[in-house]
Amino acid sequence: MLKLVFFVGVAGTGKTTVARKLARRMSAAFLDRDTVGGRFAEKILEMNGLDTNDRDSDFYKQHLRDLEYEATRDICIENLSAGQNVFMISPFTAELKSREWLGKLLQDAGMSSQEVDVKVVVVTLEDMDTQKERIIERSTDRDSWKLSHWDDFKQRVQFVPEINWDIPKSSIYIFDNSGQLTEEKVDAVFEFVQSETGRM
User: Fold this and answer.
1) Could you give the CA distance from residue 181 to residue 125 in angstroms, rounded to a whole number?
2) Would you give the distance in Å from CA 86 to the centre of its chain?
3) How wide is the angle at C-alpha 148 spanned by C-alphas 144 and 154, nearest 5°?
4) In this predicted model, what pLDDT tens digit does every residue of 76-107 receive, in sequence order?
């Protein structure tokens, strides 16, 4: 079976870091939504006189947010259709809530749940202080808005998102990424991804 693995979680939990560790152990298309749509979103925000790092504005949510996700989804579909495993990295907050979203993706790829093993790795942290430290440490321009509006941002943080997809609970792994990311921890995630307990 092909593997379609979603690495989800809020900013600063280490989704991309965990996914990169796994990518060294298995072949997969590596699709980080920030990379897929980031430059285009920044340019459009700049053209409209808006903060290029603000992903919380009404303009971004109305005009750009879904475009980034849809572009990443389209690339995922192309890779699945070509017989490639896929890693998808982003919060996917709205998509996880939609009962139909995953099924439509597989359908558009011409694949069935018997051909694609879908796994969700929810990357979490033990507290907000750790999250803020991680965000400061990675020192990216895109995080400047979050840090400047931290009190507002942290009110909306949900470390474990609502997941309404039609997949078994055994296909969802809540991974606490607090502390050092040891090889033993990576082993556990890898074993989860490689297992075939997650058939829909």
Assistant:
1) 12
2) 12
3) 100
4) 999 999 999 999 999 999 999 999 999 999 99
